[in-house]
Write a structure and sequence with these properties.
single chain; alpha/beta; Rossmann fold; 2 domains; seven-stranded parallel β-sheet
Length: 421
């Protein structure tokens, strides 16, 4: 079976799909991975066929725009970054669409793949890594500006969908659809769910399934995959960890180039607490010019190797960071900026494993107070350990590969899908 995996975004979007692709290739499938050229060395390093969608310059230009982290303008910016590669994405999938031995897996921004599915019959599975992109009137996700009772949240969401999301994406997509002889669409967050299948890589205890979710939705577990998961910690990381008590880890997101204030607040909070700290960013120009000996910086450390040896984790609320902290039983402070991060933060709070601080209130006194509470709370510690035990199996990739293979088998033998052995 030829499986085409395509995604758009940062490492947090690429790593889970890459982990799934590697597992499917191990099971004997022929894999093609398509994403930005920035990730080419990593993907080819695993022996996968790779097709670039966009250049390194495109990737960096997307990161450098502060709108990426704006809850009101973030979607427009992402769509502007997507627009130049969508027809290339369509053509890539169109070349394989009519083959009975091809299945595609794409995240919700795979608009080119979705059009190939609709026009040419491509067997496409939409991949969701976070519940915040699936709306439910019964249990609405937490989104910026969508507040109040359920009826009001539903109203506000549909207004935002019409005036923001559809207003940005539908004019371009509907012009393209007219070229393809397809009718216009609206409610893009419903349309991006493929009728062939929707795969959600998060557990039902994190986001219970709702009856108004897509009927063809298949829910598994967090992927918990990164390229360095099986590698030992670097010597300098190990040496710092051994020099004193467990540090607090801070990151505003792997793709965030606007974390200067975040890191300044982190350093001051560590000073007030008398705690050691680790600052994680691939853009060290954001850091204070000098750091005390009790605080250090690393460009990247695999979270599942680092967090078990730390006291707390302060981050932006990406689902990858959130799930790794849960897997390691580490208390969290989430400072959501945009996208799904507000919803992930709300779920952390509901599970009793952390707290959230808005970006407007993210200052050293408030962060210090929040960390003091988390580090001294027996209930938070117990909740973190309870959640960690739920993720001990670390089987999200395997279960997701099982789901994909069952979908393929059902397509080849529809009778077996309704009459399992």
């Amino acid at each position: 079976m030829k499986i085409i995996c395509t995604t758009f975004g940062s490492a947090g979007d690429v790593y889970p799909l890459l982990g799934l692709a590697i597992e499917l290739r191990r099971r004997g499938h022929d894999l093609l991975f398509a994403t930005n050229q920035h990730f080419a060395p990593l993907i080819r390093g695993y022996g996968l066929e790779f097709t670039p969608l966009g250049t390194e310059a495109d990737f960096q230009n997307c990161l450098q725009n502060p709108d990426l982290w704006n809850p009101q303008r973030g979607f427009r910016h992402i769509f502007d970054c997507l627009r130049p590669i969508l027809r290339q994405q369509y053509d890539l999938h169109a070349a394989y669409a009519q083959s009975s031995d091809t299945v595609a897996i794409s995240n919700c921004f795979g608009f080119g793949a979705r059009l190939a599915q609709e026009k040419l019959g491509l067997k496409l599975i939409t991949l969701h890594l976070q519940p915040g992109v699936i709306w439910s009137d019964l249990q609405p996700p937490t989104l910026p500006g969508v507040v109040g009772p359920r009826w009001l949240k539903s109203l506000l969401y549909r207004l935002g969908e019409k005036l923001v999301l559809d207003a940005v994406a539908c004019p371009y997509l509907n012009h393209w659809r007219a070229e393809l002889g397809l009718p216009p669409i609206r409610r893009i967050t419903q349309w991006w769910n493929s009728p062939y299948g929707v795969l959600c890589m998060f557990p039902d205890w994190f986001a219970p399934p709702q009856i108004d979710w897509p009927a063809n939705l298949m829910q598994t577990d967090f992927p918990l995959w990164n390229p360095a998961a099986n590698e030992p910690l670097a010597d300098d990381v190990t040496a710092f960890l051994k020099r004193g008590e467990r540090p607090i880890v801070f990151t505003p997101g792997s793709a965030n180039v606007y974390g200067k204030q975040f890191f300044e607040t982190a350093v001051e909070a560590c000073s007030r607490l008398g705690r050691r700290g680790i600052l994680l960013t691939e853009f060290p120009e954001q850091l204070p010019a000098t750091l005390p000996e009790s605080i250090t910086h690393f460009k990247y450390v695999a979270m599942d190797r680092l967090l078990p040896q730390t006291a707390a984790f302060v981050h932006h609320g990406g689902v990858g960071s959130t799930s790794q902290a849960m897997h390691c039983g580490t208390p969290q402070v989430v400072m959501p900026l945009a996208h799904d991060q507000f919803d992930n933060a709300a779920r952390v709070i509901r599970l009793g494993i952390g707290q959230s601080i808005s970006v407007r209130k993210f200052n050293a006194p408030r962060l210090t107070h929040t960390l003091q509470h988390l580090l001294s709370s027996e209930s938070v510690s117990a909740n973190c350990q309870f959640v960690a035990k739920r993720l001990t199996a670390k089987n999200g990739i395997r279960r997701s590969a099982d789901v994909v293979e069952r979908k393929i088998a059902a397509q080849r033998n529809p009778y077996a899908a309704h009459h399992p052995a």
